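Give me a protein, keeping tokens residue-aligned:
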Amino acid sequence: MTEPPTTASLQPETDRSTASPRPPLSFAKKIILGEFLLLTGKEQMQLALLIFAVLAVGLWFLFGFVEPPPPKTIRISTGASTGAYTRYAKQYAAEFAKHGIKLEIITSAGSIENLRRLDDQKQKVDLAFVQGGVGSAEQHPDLVGLASIAYEPIWFFYDKKRFGKTTPPTHLTDLAGHSLAIDAEGSGVRAAATRLLEMNQMSTGGDKLLPLGGMAAVDALLAGTLDAAVMVSPVDSPAVQKALSNDLGLMSLDNVDAYVRLLPWLAKVTLPRGVANIAKNVPHEDVVLIAAAAQEAVRGELALRVPVRKEPRLHGKR
């Protein structure tokens, strides 16, 4: 039986020796046409690298420009319940609430305890305020500083009756031999005071150094049971305002520039004459102080997820 002619047999005969071969598809055309089975081994490797590059760019865009959602609850370690850090945190709570986040405030002894809580994940503390000069990147490698939020003056108040009126103290060494309040263990105030005393080759132990801070130190100065006190606090804090309004002695350092040069976390600030009480001209002359930078610190994995940055309306102009 004769087979019906096929389509191929109906095509005109051509000279196979003179027919030009079909040009091979380029790598790009194979991809465009979806001819993945025609890819050579080298081209398959090129395709894999291309896909990897596109994925890498996508991930870079996602993590670089699209912030991950913040947690619903954040725990912040502050300081004393009546201190500046706790007041800051209460203002932060209102800002966090605008983002649908609850801010849980946990008071502490100060910056050192705050760093310990951040380092210990069992404490479940996410964010903390830390005074400048307390801790270092080497000591706390898993923590990140978000921003410097304010400069807090370091105040050296003293009982004028314990020092000569004609020669008020202008150096820390002038306080040697006197009772000095340097706040409680674990506070950033004590850490800063200890560092400054060591720089001046003064003793950092003994019964002359007392664990009083804030309002307790001011009350002891006014009662005459304390000679001098170191405090780190904003000018509008209740303890500082009480000390200034009662005209306690306030040491104006005459070697501030040396401290600022040696300790980069310090800055030079001036308290103008009469700013505390212009009617009574308190202080009676400009007072030169050093100030420590206060920072927000956070565990590294939360650095991109915490919606707080330095905001002038929260901390005031510095």
Notes: The chain has a mean pLDDT of 80. Residues 30-60 form one domain. The chain has three domains: 30-60, 73-149+297-312, 151-293.
